[in-house]
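PROTEIN DESIGN WORKSHEET
SECTION A - STRUCTURE
LENGTH: 67
TOKENS:
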């Protein structure tokens, strides 16, 4: 199990994460990323990994929690 984290202060708001994983990320009215669900699951892990890889400011991270 891992927890998804975002650094909203450094988000540039290009929306790549929302396009790749709309169940996990959204943009608020100011165009800053909002984490809808911080839980990394088997269902969203591929999309979240893509979002991490494509985020231009590298503000999306995963905290691994030991089982
Ligand atoms: S991809 Fe990164 S910079 Fe772009 S909106 Fe998402 S968190 Fe912000």
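SECTION B - SEQUENCE
RESIDUE ASSIGNMENT:
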């Amino acid at each position: 199990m891992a927890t998804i984290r975002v650094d909203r202060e450094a988000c540039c708001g290009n929306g790549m994460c929302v396009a790749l994983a709309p169940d996990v990320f959204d943009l608020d009215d100011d165009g800053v990323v909002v984490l809808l669900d911080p839980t990394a699951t088997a269902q969203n892990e591929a999309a979240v990994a893509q979002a991490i890889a494509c985020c231009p400011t590298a503000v999306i991270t995963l905290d691994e929690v030991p089982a």
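SECTION C - NOTES
The pocket of iron/sulfur cluster is lined by residues 6, 11-17, 25, 33, 55-57, 59-60 (CB under 6 Å).
The two ends are 7 Å apart (CA to CA).
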